[in-house]
Inverse folding.
């Protein structure tokens, strides 16, 4: 339960992103804000990773595959931001968010099944289906017919796949004996270095304003550094597919923040969706009962 609570706490940190941007009101493109978030948060995580380097060198035989996992994970971190924002721009925030967040657990399940050659448990499938239904209802995309842009759908699905890449790669590095803080720091540190030129090209003048600096620090420290330290700690103790489903708490928390902080309205359908998300999270969070082995009375003492 502590591991599940750590992931839920990380999702709570993630959920403050939209509210923080709304309150800050800075004149910056989503690409610039996303790049600043990774530069600040990933930079801090990278420094933490350097401080936790192991004293013994990595075996030469596993060096290439480990570097590949780090590179693929960093690519996933880098690709998530622009793909997510492109999807929301093409099809709207509601649909873009639903497709991105909804496809993430599914993509994680597929990638993890290929890597481990093991299908997710039926309980995970049930919990994910319930939570995803809730996400759709909360988003409000069921309110009528809409014309969808195929390119936007692909971008949102690509964001979900990007999430799956850095989650599964992070889990694979942890299984190789890496400390979870070192894993998150290494992957996000590499992404931070690559995000720096993106930030400069997208425009960084907004960082000189008080609101812009406060936004960058909040997104970097809270929604990235703190969030992914919690995320990594939980990932070390749970399966990648379970973690991906638990992070669906993000839209639940984001909706509640919009309700109480931004004074947004909540429809009955959205309220029912929130309840479904909570049920799905509860199903996947409750530890499964382990059958106790009954001693065989006929066995020799």
């Amino acid at each position: 339960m502590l591991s599940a609570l750590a992931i839920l706490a990380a999702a709570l940190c993630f959920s403050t992103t939209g509210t923080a941007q709304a309150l800050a009101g800075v004149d910056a493109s989503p690409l610039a804000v996303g790049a600043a978030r990774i530069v600040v948060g990933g930079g801090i995580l990278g420094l933490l990773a350097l401080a936790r380097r192991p004293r013994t060198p990595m075996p030469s035989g596993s060096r290439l595959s480990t570097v590949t996992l780090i590179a693929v994970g960093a690519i996933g971190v880098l690709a998530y931001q622009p793909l997510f924002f492109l999807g929301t721009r093409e099809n709207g925030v509601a649909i873009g968010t639903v497709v991105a967040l909804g496809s993430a657990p599914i993509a994680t399940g597929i990638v993890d099944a290929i890597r481990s050659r093991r299908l997710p448990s039926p309980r995970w499938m049930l919990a994910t289906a319930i939570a995803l239904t809730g996400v759709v209802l909360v988003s409000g995309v069921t309110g009528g017919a809409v014309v969808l842009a195929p390119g936007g759908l692909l971008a949102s699905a690509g964001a979900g796949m990007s999430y799956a890449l850095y989650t599964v790669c992070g889990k694979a590095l942890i299984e190789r004996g890496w400390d979870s803080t070192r894993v998150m720091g290494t992957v996000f540190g590499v992404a931070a270095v690559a995000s720096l030129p993106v930030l400069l090209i997208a425009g960084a003048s907004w960082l000189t304003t008080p609101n812009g600096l406060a936004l960058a620090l909040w997104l970097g420290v809270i929604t990235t550094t703190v969030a992914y330290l919690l995320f990594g700690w939980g990932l070390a103790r749970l399966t990648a597919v379970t973690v991906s489903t638990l992070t669906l708490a993000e839209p639940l928390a984001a909706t509640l923040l919009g309700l109480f902080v931004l004074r947004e309205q909540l429809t009955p359908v959205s309220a029912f969706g929130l309840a479904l998300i909570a049920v799905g999270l509860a199903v996947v969070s409750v530890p499964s009962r382990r059958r106790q082995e009954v001693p065989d009375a006929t066995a020799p003492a």
Summary: Residues 290-301 have pLDDT under 50 and may be disordered. The first helix runs from residue 2 to 24. The radius of gyration is 20 Å. The CA atoms of residues 80 and 159 lie 5 Å apart.
